[in-house]
From TrEMBL:
The lineage of its organism: Bacteria, Bacillati, Actinomycetota, Actinomycetes, Actinomycetales. It comes from Arcanobacterium bovis. This is SCP2 domain-containing protein.
């Protein structure tokens, strides 16, 4: 694990998952129901913005118009903020800092609650559903950043030809891992022409595999995971999945 890649996993993986959180959880949406802020996170290894308005969030890559600009002189400073041991440098919108320490912090705390399940919490079917959907999204976003920036990740991606890998749950979310010139990005929805696919039979199976409760080979053997398409894409996708816990563990 390196700090530069971890900073991108945090900014382009963890924060991007907030888009989905407010779609799933009314309490989270209510926290920002009256907000109208655009927060820019400026880092040497990647800049992005969160457009937060009327209970919705949009994650945008790159710099642009904003109401608050938080600067991080080095990638490690991004990671320290996420670990709770550091803070950014506000270069714009210092008078709006209360939004960051108030509603925005409340929002990230709700996300953390979903991403740190306990056996007791998982007894609630709705919590379990939301945990699975959020985990699938954050793992996919993190995987793309690892493939594009981590040394071992780039090696795996170098063996993946151009095409779409369809990652989906029957009756649940669908994500496309789009491969172009050995770089990966995540797109919502269904691919018209997937080169490979990994489809879970339902959310309970997807959640069990993602949380490590169900061995993936067992799920494949029971036809609870459908695999198909170009084998090297699937093989190297699994190698990338194996790197994700090093960054999100």
């Amino acid at each position: 694990m390196d700090n530069a890649t971890l900073s991108r996993v945090n900014l382009f993986g963890v924060l991007r998952t907030l888009e989905t959180l407010v779609q799933l959880d009314d309490k989270a949406a209510q926290v920002i129901a009256h907000a109208d802020e655009t927060i820019q996170f400026t880092s040497p290894k990647g800049t992005m913005r969160l457009v937060i308005k009327n209970g919705t969030i949009k994650h945008l890559e790159g710099a642009g118009p904003n109401t608050m600009n938080l600067a991080f002189p080095a990638p490690i400073m991004v990671n320290k903020m996420f670990a709770g041991t550091g803070a950014p440098v506000p270069v714009k919108g210092i008078r709006r800092i209360k939004f960051l320490t108030g509603p925005f912090t409340d929002l990230t705390n709700i996300l953390t609650e979903y991403l740190m399940p306990t056996p007791q919490k998982l007894q609630d079917p709705e919590y379990r559903r939301r945990n699975t959907i959020l985990t699938l999204h954050i793992a996919s976003y993190a995987l793309a950043e690892i493939a594009n920036h981590d040394v071992a990740g780039k090696e795996a991606a170098s063996r993946m030809r151009d095409g779409d890998l369809q990652l989906a749950v029957i009756g649940g979310p669908a994500l496309i891992i789009r491969i172009k010139d050995h770089r990966l990005r995540v797109v919502e929805g269904l691919s018209n022409h997937p080169s490979a696919k990994m489809v879970f039979s339902d959310l309970d199976v997807a959640g069990g595999v993602l949380r490590g409760e169900i061995p993936s080979f067992e799920a494949v053997g029971k036809d609870q995971i459908q695999l198909g398409g170009f084998v090297p894409i699937l093989d190297n996708f699994n190698k990338l999945l194996g790197l994700v816990p090093h960054y999100l563990g």
